Amino acid sequence: MEERLKRVLASVFEVPESSIDDSANPDVVEGWDSLNHMKLVVALEDEFGIKFSDEEILEMQSFKLIKYTISQYLAKD
Amino acid sequence: MIEITDFFPMEKWEEFCSFFTECYRPNHSLCDRKFFEWQFMVKPGDDKANIICGWDNGKLLGIHAYIPLLVHWGGFKKSIQALWTLCWVVRKQAPKGLGLLITKKIQDMSPLILSANASKTGVSFFKVLGWSVFPRIPRYICVLNKKEECVHMLSEGAGEEDLDAFIFKPQANGSLRISEYNLNNDNYYPQWHLYPGLSFGTMRSLDYINWRYVEHPIFRYHIILEGASNRPAVCVYRIERTSGLYEARVGRIVDFFFPNDEHGHGDGLNLMDAVLKHMKSIGCAYVDFISSNKEYSEVFVSLGGCEESESRQILPVRLNPIERVLRHQNLVVFTGKDFSLPRLEDMYITKSDIDADGPAKNPYYEGIQKDYCYELRS
Question: Would you say B174 and B303 are in contact if contact means Cβ atoms under 8 Å apart?
C-alpha cells in the first residue's frame, strides 16, 4: 500500500518517489498546494476505490496521516 | 474545528466583508450589503444567503456561492432547478481540502451546475473535479462611432483600420422605435417551444427578468421587446461609461433572443437594428454582445457586427477602468447522470449569466458614482 501511495503522491506533485516519506507534508513538498491537494484527494479515491469523509479530507495534511487514513479503509476490506 | 454550513447567516455580515476584503479587495461590489443581498437572494426575514461556507471558530475560511435558477436543458417539457455558482475562494491559511469540500457540497445539491467567468485557478480546480470547461464564449463587436470614440480605446498594436470589419450597417428600411417595457404576466409570456435556441440555458422567465434586471441594485438595464406577448423578440442592454484611459459610452447587450421562425427572425432583426441605432444616436462608441448561440448572434452580425478574434481583442472588455488585456468569458458545467453536455453553440449563455455582467467596483464606495462610470439605477 505504501508504495502505491508514494507513487500517487509523486505523480500528483511531480517529484521523485524517493523524496516521499513519513515527513512529507505541504511545508516540505514543493507543489503541495491547494490545487494539487485536490488532485491528490481525487487520485487517491480513484487508486484505492474509496470515498473520503469531509473530516478525513481536512485531516490528510501529511503523508503519514494519509497513510493512516487509507490503512483504516483497507483494514475494513 | 472546521464547520461547513450550506448558507451564510447575515448576522455575520462584518465577517463576510473582512473575508472578502482580504481575499479580493476592499471596494468589491459584494461588500455593498444591498448588492450582496440581491446577488445571493437573501429573502426578507430569512437572513440566509446562498453561500456554502467553511468556518473555524466563527472565522470564515472559504466560500462557494450558488444561485438556484430554473433552466431548460434539452427541451421545454419541464424546467430543472440548476445552480449557477460564483465566488469560490478560500483564505490562504485555510486547511488544504476546504475548497474541495465546499464544492462537493454544491455538487451534492444539484445534478446540473454552471459557472461563468471562472478564474484561471478556478478553472484548474473545476477540471480536477471533472467539470467541463468551455474556455471562450464568442464576443461580437459592432462599432457605432469609429473615429470619434473607438480609436482612443484600441488595444496596443491595433490601428483604426482594424475597426473597419466591425462597422454598423443599419437597415435602410428599419423604422422601429424602441420603447421600454414594464413586464408583467399580461405582456410577457413567451411560449418557450418557439425558441429552440433557448433549449439549453437559464429560463428567461418573468421572474428571472425581474430579479436579474429590474431589481438589479446597481445597473440600470433597458428591456426592449418586439412582437406579440407570447412570442416576443427580446433585447436587454445597458450603457456603461468608461473610465481611466478614455471616457466614452459603450453599449453592453446582455440578452437577445427571438422565436425561431421567419416572423420571429424579422422581429429580432428589427429590434436589434433599432437598439443599435439608438445606441449610435446617444453617442456609444461600440457595443458588444457575448453569446454562445449562433442563431441570435447572426442577426447581430448581419447588421455589421463581427466576432472578435480569439487571440486578439481590439476593443476592451473591462471598462472601469479600461483594461487592455485579452480576457474571455468562459463557462464551466457540471453535469450529473441523466444530463447531457451539449455543444457550446447549442446553449444559450450570454454576458448576463450570473456574475459575468457585474460591477467591477461598488459604485457607492469612495464616491465612484461621481465619475458616473455606470448608468446607475436612480
Answer: no
Q: Give the residue from B334, B295, B329, B327 showing the smallest Cα distance to B311.
A: B327
Q: What is the pLDDT of residues B38-78, one digit of tens each?
A: 999 998 888 999 999 999 999 999 999 999 999 999 999 99
Contacting B with CB below 8 Å, chain A residues are: 26, 32-35, 37-39, 41-42, 54, 57-58, 60-61
Q: Using the beta-carbon criterion (under 8 Å), do B90 and A34 form an inter-chain contact? A: yes
- Would you state the torsion angle of the CA atoms of residues A19, A25, A27, A28, taken in this order, to the nearest 10 degrees? -10
pLDDT tens track of chain A, all 77 residues? 889 999 999 999 999 999 999 999 999 998 898 889 999 999 999 999 999 999 999 999 999 999 999 999 988 77
Query: In chain A, whose CA is at the least distance from the CA of B120?
Result: A35
pTM, to two decimals: 0.91
Strand (E) or helix (H) holding B302: helix B294-302
Residue of B nearest to A32 (CA): B96
Q: What is the ipTM of this complex?
A: 0.84
Phi, psi of B104 (to 5 degrees): -60, -35
